[in-house]
Amino acid sequence: MTDGWTDKRRRIILNFFGLFFLKSIDVSHINNTVDKIFKIIDDVVEDVGEKNVIQVVTDNAANYKIAREMLMKKRKMLFLNALYAQHIALI
């Protein structure tokens, strides 16, 4: 996937995305609380290595939104987005 845009300094940036499936975790047995969602996502980022993760895409439910905000506070270098998940599902 690729996307182009112009930043605030008027530089034209062309992004290339390499997407791949990493893992699936069965969370049926836990409550979908903010703290648990945050811990699971944070653990996966830690397993992969924060330097290897640029963006995290999540569901847009309220509990995921708060978990994203918590992750952004902890891991300042990540981009977090909910909208892309819905857009990718439409493709």
Can you tell me about this structure?
The chain is an alpha+beta fold and 91 residues long. The protein has one domain (21-90). It has three helices and four strands; from the N terminus they run ββαβαβα. The chain has a two-stranded antiparallel sheet with strand order 1-2. Strands 3-4 form a two-stranded parallel ribbon. Helix 1 (34-48) crosses helix 2. It starts with a strand and ends with a helix.
Rg over CA atoms, rounded to whole Å, is 15 Å
Number of helices: 3
Give the helices and strands as they follow along the chain: EEHEHEH
Sheet with the most strands? 2 strands, antiparallel
Task: Indicate the proportion of strand residues.
Answer: 15-25%
Cα(first) to Cα(last) distance is 12 Å
Number of strands: 4
Flag low-confidence runs: none
What is the number of independent domains? 1
The helix content is 25-40%
Shape: elongated
Structural class: alpha+beta
User: Widest sheet: strand order?
Assistant: 1-2
Residue-averaged pLDDT, rounded?
83
